[in-house]
Amino acid sequence: MNLQQCRYVEVVARAGSFSQAAKELYVTQPNLSSSIKDLENELGVQLFTRSNMGTRLTEDGHDFLKYAKRIIGELNLLEQRYHSTFKKSFTVASHHYDFLSIPLAKMAEQFGEDYQEFQLIETTTKRILENVANFEADLGIIYLNDDNKHILERSLTNHDLEFTSLGDFPTRIFLRRQHPLAKNSEISEADLEGYQQVRFRQEKSGLNFDEDPLEVHQGQRILYSNDRGTVMNLLCASDAYASGLGIVDSFIKEQIVLIPLKDSPSHTLGYVTNKKKKISDISSAFIQEIKKSLGSHTRT
Fold it and tell me: 0.85 cut: is pTM over it?
């Protein structure tokens, strides 16, 4: 099996006949039919049904084309990467932090001549590590604490990744401004008993990759979401609470309060890089902008 055969299957399926596909591919129909037949023999399945009404994919053919299109799509992207007019892309995979928006916008302005795409992926810890390890993201933004440190450090080592600290931050409780506890100067875990908790959904990997610093109480009602906007909407619409590092720089500060958790341990926020890849100029500039944003939030 080769990439040419994958493209042949895609064109035949779209054209609906071998004769029309041969014209589009600038090959003879016998050569096209022979190549597809060789592929079918190699795979041990029939990809097309041929009749006077035309050519159609079989069930096995549909399944093959589904996977073949992924390969063809990646190859097309690779070809575009070296096109004379191509501009590079910059991608950051992160936990759900709104303070990254301004640094990313500055990168778009500063590096706009050489870069065309600027992407911030808010996702789970597992996916952040995978994205950086697979070179799908230039940087990852996560945090370490006493609960997840050993597991994450092992995962970083296994993926050949490096974690660099951006500072230590306490846990803060996120509440709507009308919440019964909103006037407190600090909140203990005991104060939170009886209230619903809003949490970010992580994969069930068997590892403690939770993004939320606080644990779930026994019998506690939990509202899960994998979207930061939804989490904030849930907080504003109820007396539920969320926990996090309290690094908020957007308009959402007008709707919620951030109250320190009593006796809170520090959490180390940092960025993740792939040891096999040199840090680019845009990554270094982005990191410097993050440090500026975090200046007023870092625990001293």
Answer: no
Cα 253 to Cα 124, 239, 256, 296, distances in angstroms: 23, 17, 5, 15
Q: Are 90 and 107 in contact (CB under 8 A)?
A: yes
Q: Which CATH number characterizes residue 25's domain?
A: 1.10.10.10
- The CA distance from 191 to 98, in Å, is 27
Burial of 55 (0-12, 13-18, 19+ CB in 10 A): buried
Question: pLDDT of 50-86, one tens digit each?
Answer: 888 789 999 999 999 998 988 888 887 777 666 656 6
Residue 89 phi/psi, 5-degree rounding, is -125, 155
Domain ranges, residue 18: 3-81
How far apart CA 25 and CA 11 sit, in angstroms, is: 8
CATH of the domain at 155: 3.40.190.10
CB neighbour list of residue 74: distance below 8 Å, 6 or more residues apart: none
Alpha helices in 82-122 (DSSP H): 101-110
Are residues 124 and 210 in contact, defined by beta-carbon separation less than 8 angstroms?
no
- Quickly state the pLDDT bin for 121 (edges 50, 70, 90): very high
CB 58 within 8 A of CB 12: no
Domain count for the chain:
3
Distance in angstroms (rounded) separating the CA atoms of residues 297 and 98: 13
CA–CA distance, 290 with 278 (Å, rounded to integer): 19
**Shared domain check, 197 and 67:** no
132 & 275 share domain:
yes
Q: How far apart are CA 199 and CA 214, in angstroms?
A: 9
